[in-house]
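Anyone able to model this chain together with zinc ion?
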Amino acid sequence: MKDIEIIPSILREVIEKISELPGYGEKSAQRLALNLLNMPRGEALQIIKTLFDMLEKIHPCVECGLFTEKEICDICSSEERDRSVICVVEETFDAFAIEKTGKFNGLYHVVGGRLSPLEGITPEDLNIDKLIERVDKGNIKEVILATNPTVEGEATASYIYNLLKNKNITVSRIAYGLPFGAVLENADDFTLAKALEHKTPI
Ligand code: ZN
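re: yes, here you go
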């Protein structure tokens, strides 16, 4: 008797596609697909519609890389921000976490990930050139490296530090308060505020 493929091909394709996302294995892809199939169809379609809207409307800010609905994000276009300080983060949600502390009034720069030889992520894959360009344009006095205190985050910070160290600006690294291996997005406001307060020049 011939083997029959019991999983419908569309479902197989969905699981395959979702498993291509970083952080999603086959099991979590299956769970997501099943959750959607088990939901009332209207609710599931609403989720898909929201995802569709997000993909149509949200783009990285051309200046800093924060995800925004506008060409230039609200922070970059604000008159109230200190335009001489740039806080470098891995991802948009790290910037949002710092923003929530209310302790930072400068601009951001999202590099869009972290250096990781294991995952094949090299400097060319990150939004680093644009950061150097922003610094070279002048008016920047300080760059705060707020990548995550993980092995990859440290490697990213030190790579950027080396590009900036001769540029006659202060380069700082957030440190105090954040345990090594922590992820900014998950840190509580107090810890994150402390980490910013006790940033140290490198
Ligand atoms: Zn921006």
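The chain is about 45% helix and 10% strand.
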